[in-house]
Amino acid sequence: MCIRRRYCNKGHAKFFRLIFRYDTLGNYYQTNFALMQHHKYSLTELENMLPWERTIYVELLLKYLKEEKERLELQRQTKKR
User: What are 44-77's pLDDT values in tens digits?
Assistant: First the structure.
C-alpha cells in the first residue's frame, strides 16, 4: 500500500526497466515464436512467466543448444576418422 502517490509506481517502473534492459519488443516476439514453434511452449505459458523466470529458461535453453551443437560436431569429427 502506498502512503504517498508519487512513490507508488516508481519502484515498479524501475524494476521492469531493469528486467527488460537488454530485450527489445522485436526480440521478445521472435523469442516467443521460436519457443512456441521449436520447443513446444504455449503462448499462455510464456505470457504467464515472470520476467526473471523467462530469462532463466531462455538461458538454460541456449546452454543446452550450445552443448548439443558441440556434441554433434564432435560426433561428426569422430565419424570422419
Answer: 999 999 988 988 988 999 999 999 999 999 999 9
Beta-carbon contacts of 59 under 8 Å, excluding residues fewer than 6 positions away, are none
Rounded alpha-carbon distances, angstroms, from residue 66 to 2, 72, 73: 46, 10, 11
Q: Is the sign of the CA dihedral 38, 41, 42, 48 positive or negative?
A: negative
CB 52 within 8 A of CB 42: no
Q: Is the pTM of this model over 0.85?
A: no
Instruction: Report the C-alpha gap between 64 and 53 in whole angstroms.
Output: 17
Hey, CA dihedral for 51, 35, 43, 33, is it positive or negative? positive
Torsion angle defined by CA atoms of residues 25, 62, 38 and 17, in that order, rounded to the nearest 10 degrees: -20
